[in-house]
Amino acid sequence: MDVKLPKLGEGADSGSVVSILVQEGDLVKKGQTVIELENEKAVAPIPATASGVIANIRVKEGDKISVGQIILSIVEASASSAPVAETNTPTFAPAAPKAKRAAPAPEPEPAPSIADESVDNEHEVVEGTPGIAPAAAPSIRKIARELGIDLRRIRGSEDGGRIVMADLRAYVQRLQKLTAQPKPAAPPVPPAAKSVAESIDFSQWGAVTKKPLTPLRKTISRRMTENWNTIPHVTQFDEADVTALLELRKKYAAAYDGKGAHLTLTTFALKAVVTALKKFPIFNASLDEATQEIVFKEYFHIGIAVDTDAGLIVPVIRNVDKKNLVELSKELSAVAEKARDRKIGLEDLKGGTFTISNQGGIGGAHFTPIVNKPELAILGLGRGAVKAVVRDKQIVVRTMLPIAISYDHRLIDGGTAARFTIELVNALENFAEAEIKI
Asked: Against a cut of 0.70, is the pTM above it?
């Protein structure tokens, strides 16, 4: 039997073969992964649909395949057949039955020299059945062949659609009339269309190296372009004093490590974001553009932007409001590792309500993250910096965390964004120690 690429999920109908895990002659079991397919920011395992021996592999690494395309063929092991030993001895599929000898197709008539003729009421141009010549006398066929006319394009006026000389003459006259008519001017090409897919030969200025875009990078490019072009972005900037928060992290870090949970600033940010989202639910909503309705979500699934060698991947941590910091710390480490190893599932990338992008581990301060549609907002965190700040008219040294919140200005106004930012800063600066204790 043939193993075909199944549907991978909503909106996912193709992908590129990352690795092939079997060889021809291998014995496989139903459900065993046979290839890995890169699609929609994830590497999805594709299982065998039956047990048996691999007879023929139809794809190779790097191939782009679509839903329904044959991946490989398997010779199924039936109950009546002898068991197949797990050896490297190649197994051959049964020979395919010989195809019946096809009857020779009639010699096609020459195509007409003019393809854009119109249809009149008396002598209509028709599309006949390919390979079947219409009824006509040998003399008519000879004239049509010499003139380069396809008789299948002429509707005969005699019984049974038989073509006579009058039909052929009328057809020729119509072609002459069409030739004499001036062709309509081509519509002007929009200026934007002229610049599409313009290729520049950079090698004329020096040596270059070309590298094709990976499917993941193409997906990121397409989505970022769509998000930026369809969402009116505004970014709200601020800073949060995380001096006390970092002291709490230092105090409890060893206890969390003992539980197999790495306590990070992103873990605190997850909880602080949920606190702000509950007070400003519009930031946890989406716009249904088809019905022009605002969809307020009563769940808090937070996407975490993960920097990988292949590109940016955003797995989703679900029900953040229902998990403690130990659970969130473990899950955060797990999804980040799976994303970097490209073992994240497609469903793990869907259903987010808000996204956090933390660049603090890399460096930098404020930046303008792009909203991850259909979400309405995204939080960007920079690297905390030790600064001299004024507190109660005194200059003190504090660790200040740069934050940037980009939002969809169609549904979120500047005043609401400012109040949300203040609430988030307050949640970070006044994080309750009771929530951290194990």
From this structure: no
